[in-house]
Design a protein that fits this description.
Structural class: mainly alpha
Radius of gyration: 17 Å
Shape: elongated
Largest sheet: 2 strands, antiparallel
Strand content: 5-15%
Distance between the termini: 25 Å
Number of strands: 2
Amino acid sequence: MLTQRSRYGLRSMIFLATTPAGGPPVPMNRIAVEANVPRKFLELILADLRDAGLLHSHRGKMGGYMLARPAHLISLGEIIRVIEGPLALVPCVSRTAYRPCKDCKSEADCAIRHAMARVRDETARILDGTSLADATAEEVAAA
């Protein structure tokens, strides 16, 4: 299940994806209002996304945030990994943060591990295959 923090991050990034490319940076207050995200959480989330290279920030009176790459080159999977960490539901199938499960007798024979590896693969396939541009197009189509 996605945490509230991930939902806030996704909503913020999807909102930024709807702003004109090459336009001025969007102030944090506007992002907070349009994406319905409390400002105190938004500041931390945007800093993480900026540090990961998904956003550019500009200081000053005309400052704000903008996508670091075109919306079609930023996947939902990237955003979630920045905010949450690995997509795997159990650590023994994580590609980026592998850890053996402490109570597992045999990874090779573990039915849970095999099932969760399939879940991880399909989750990654869908999230990595869905860009911000795709998400905004689906949002427009649903409206």
